[in-house]
Sequence to fold (371 residues):
Amino acid sequence: MTMLDDHTTAATWPTAYPEGYAVVDVETTGLARDDRIVSAAVYRLDARGDVEDHWYTLVNPERDPGPVWIHGLTSDVLESAPLFPEIAGELAARLDGRVLVAHNAIFDWSMIAREYARAERTAPTRQRLCTIALSKELGLPLPNHKLESLAAHFGVVQQRAHHALDDARVLAEAFRPSLHAAARGGVRLPLLECRPLTEWSDTPALPRVGYQSSYRQTSWRPSRKRPPCPYPNPGRYVPGERLAQGMRVAFSGDTSVDRELLEDRAVEAGLHVATSVSRLTSLLVTNDPGASTSKTVKAASYGTPVIDEAAFTQLLRDVVPAPGASVPAPASPASPASPVPSVAASSASAAAGTASVPASTSVRAATSSDG
Fold:
């Protein structure tokens, strides 16, 4: 009997809990913004975590499939698979009105949001729940945050690790007891807003000096070295005043404009894009200042000014030049790319430390999680 067969319920179910969930896993060609989905699986659950149905599809990425040794999906296998625009409607129907649940949900959501943006569509998801964050809220005694550790804790057996359908099944079986434990303990679910991408460009972001392969074992974000900012840091941003060239700006969380496009505009305006927050950071841009991410926590401890994406976009229009410098004209919004057939790739869903991986596998990044 699996944990999904255990029908014990909390005496009083929290009325604030969502009415339904979509447990998702995607396999991808890699970990970068220009990587594609190669397979996707969704288990739909009701308000108390019971399975309603499940769905699985391959997706043709129209490019090399990436780490075949992880997900096991070769070009021959994917050649006859549907393109993402062809399955976008079915996937949307399964996500609509439900909280997206995934293990390291920011990764799965980011890949899905990008695919919909490429197809000039909008994913219907409005909230996500990361099971890594939920396990932390519950204080589960896990040795690490790998999916296999969460599964083992609840006695769930993995049959095809790193295969989208089996990973989604395993997560659904582990999520139900986690949900009930949260309900019994009156735990507030760690729900985060899903902000759909409103702008997309398939053109490699410039400058792209020192760009390295998108597939990396340690982080789902690619190495993207930029030329050093030529202007000295003038200090912190003062609310109500203008940005100045040389200011160090960090970004955290979802943005409505693709993150790298936003970063590129900051660089074009003469700002220094920082990958972390320190005492030297001039400003943190986030649409969710209340989220307990490492950047927002550090910003709060350092007293770093915080503004949202909309305010930052307005400020980019009028940046104070550094001494002896001139401000470049504001970057015009990139026109949406024409629909590009989506690529289904193995979800680099690898958590830290994957030793030998069966043929159907995915690489899930343990870093950059919602937890």
Confidence is low (pLDDT under 50) at residues 1-8, 204-223, 329-369.
